[in-house]
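Bit of a strange request maybe. I'm writing a small parser for structure token strings and I need a real example to test against, not something I typed by hand. Could someone generate the tokens for this chain?
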Amino acid sequence: MKVLIIGGVAAGTKVAAKLKRENQDYEVTILTKSKDISYAGCGIPYYVGKLIPNRSQLIVNTPESFSKLTGVSVITQVEVTKVNPSEKTVEAINLKTNEPLTYEYDKLVMASGASAITPPVDGVNLKNVFFVRTPDDGEALRSAVEAGDIKRAVVVGGGYIGLEVAENLFSQGVRVTIIDMAKHILPGFDEEVCEYVENHLANQGIIAFTETKLEAILGDGKVEKVKTSNRAFKADAVILSVGIKPNTDFVEGSGIELMPNKTIKVNEYLQTNVEDIYAVGDCATVVNRLTKEPTWSPMGSTANIAGRIVAKNIAGTETAYPGVLGTAVLKLPELNVARTGLTEAAVRKAGYNAVSVVAVVDDKAHYYPDASYFIVKMIADKDSKKLLGLQVLGKGAVDKMADIAVTAITMGATLNGIQNMDLAYAPPFSTAIHPFTHTVNILLNKINGKFETITPAAYLNGEGKDYKVIDTSTIPSIDDAHYVDLTKVDQEFSEFAKDEKLLLVCTKGKRAYMLQNRLKHLGYANTLVLEGGTTFNEVTV
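Reply from user aminoacidic:
Good idea to test on real output. This should exercise your parser:
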């Protein structure tokens, strides 16, 4: 059987290698526009930041080494221009000679990926305007930094790649500004979490200007200034990370169905609407595992997992792809960020009775060197108690927290079902009650009415304005707030009526919860705890 694969980065090479392992008799051929295959696109920002010293480390396999390793035929610098399903052929052009070519197939896999979007503004062709999509892009940007040509840079786009590039340029001594048209950077997180990250970056020295449109890049031959809808910025370089578009122009007119965003539509087996043609990776749309809604997931993890499944389906082992949860993890200056599942807004949109909690929990034994904390937003359905989403920030292993949540959500677990899991504990790694379990307990307490709170989102919206702020931190920390020492509360307060509205605030939330418990016992009926305390919220009286 002849299997033709269009594209040779993550998805294409995964399909090819797995196919040859499934059946050595298959004739598997990869066609790719690039001279490189199987490169680590996700590693490019870290090559710019010199955490990856050599460009060669980004190249997982050369075409020659991949062919020898797997038995797959790799044809580089060939661009596919048309698919002819009725004839089972594809038309292509040799980019070195302009020679027209035709290839036959029994099964066709489209893994053509996506390309960086070039915004339609003046100046995008000036020197020191960069993309971060290929190893060549990374080489160009790193070389300019090493040459001392870049002191100030504007990153256009506050998604994952844009933020990773910003972090790595910053680590090399470049002054970095981020601009983004959206209300917040960091897509896929709830608004209050995004605001926390934006404030954190500003404290580190990276300012993000949101709701700001790029209007022009100005300069005499090279970048000198960036004009935006907000203001102008002096800059030596501009990194364009405004998004990507699927490479599917060659599909037009073939009868293969596309989604509105021009990705290829596939079913649960990653088949297109045309027999014997599959699509996988950044050029295809999959589904969200929870909502079953069409979802574009241009991630290396999605490409590899789905690529393996395509190969099994072609080889005759029918395997459905269950969908994605939007899992992601990101390294920023002095802060790691991760997420999985649905945001609180998406949970409501999907028809669930959303409930969430923001908790600040120790990431390991507090006495262990480098101990810190996680800020966790955990989201569930209040009725069924099913876990539906998690967002986590911290200096430590946020990926561990996210991955536990991925497992739980994938298995359809409830909070009660995962409340007492036997998770790994030793002081260098965790706390005796794991931080994930600790957060589950806090959310269950909230659902069960034992922990009455105001969320950071509600506090931002002014919902606590009628409450008197009570500072119950270890030492007074909120200007003009009434301070209460938790350890001395054993009787009623003469200064507060039993029905007075009291907002209890401490550093993380634990002391405020303990104070609420005591006050309830004393008959105070209108207390709320501010989730996340002053660690997550800016509290004013």
